[in-house]
Amino acid sequence: MLIRSIIGLAVITQIAGHASAHVVFNVDEAEPGTFHTAQLRVMHGCEGQPTDHVRIVMPDGVTRVTPRVVPGWDISVEMRTLDEPILLHGFEVKQVVGALIWSGGSFPDFAYEQFEFRAMLPDDSGRRLDFVVNQGCGDLRLDWDDIAAPDADPWALEEPAPYITLTSKNGD
């Protein structure tokens, strides 16, 4: 019985360690073609070092991106030029937000922080939007940029990019 308990505890510890090694969205599903408020949780620092830089890259089709202020952090925006202009409310748009960057703040390795933004999602039911995240911790860096094949489990990857799946408009 003791050996079963020890093995069970080891399995739980391994699963918990694996789960805490990710950056994730609080809600990983959203309705296509709508505004969505995304809350990204960065679950820890890098090898014991505090996190002092977070960069979230917007996937193609995500527009009208607005970051939320995190007290103690600075926000900057990287723009991306589109191959083909798009129309937003009757105006031709040639550039969209390519990435959001929070810097100048810090949180310790044992804590987590949440970074939030609001965006218009593409009208593409069933699509998985992968958001590459670069996490800086002084001289160390974690790149959450592993993107799974369409039918593969993203959490089986070593450093999976967090994602939001676009559900169908009628909830199916």
Structure write-up:
- Residues 22-166 form the YncI copper-binding domain.
- Pfam families: DUF1775 (PF07987).
- The protein is built from 1 helix and 12 strands, in the order H-E-E-E-E-E-E-E-E-E-E-E-E.
- The protein is mainly β and 172 residues long.
- It has one domain: Immunoglobulin-like (Sandwich).
- Strands 6-7-4-10-11 form a 5-stranded antiparallel β-sheet, with no helix packed on it. A 4-stranded antiparallel β-sheet has the order 1-3-8-5, with no helix packed on it. A 3-stranded mixed β-sheet has the order 2-12-9, with no helix packed on it.
- A hairpin with a 2-residue loop joins strand 10 (133-137) and strand 11 (140-144).
- The protein is globular and about 45 Å long.
- 19% of the residues are buried.
- Mean pLDDT is 87; it is low at 4-21.
Question: CATH superfamily name?
Answer: Uncharacterised protein YcnI-like PF07987, DUF1775
* Total individual domains: 1
Q: Please name the CATH architecture.
A: Sandwich
- What name does CATH use for the topology? Immunoglobulin-like
Counting copies of identical and different chains, the oligomeric state is: single chain
Indicate the low-confidence ranges by residue numbers.
4-21
User: What is the β-strand count?
Assistant: 12
Query: Within the largest sheet, what's the order of strands?
Result: 6-7-4-10-11
Helix segment tally: 1
Radius of gyration: 18 Å
The computed structural class is mainly beta
From the N-terminal CA to the C-terminal CA, the straight-line distance is 45 Å
Residues in helices, as a percent range: 10-25%
Largest sheet: 5 strands, antiparallel
Q: What's the overall geometry?
A: globular
Q: Determine and state the CATH class.
A: Mainly Beta
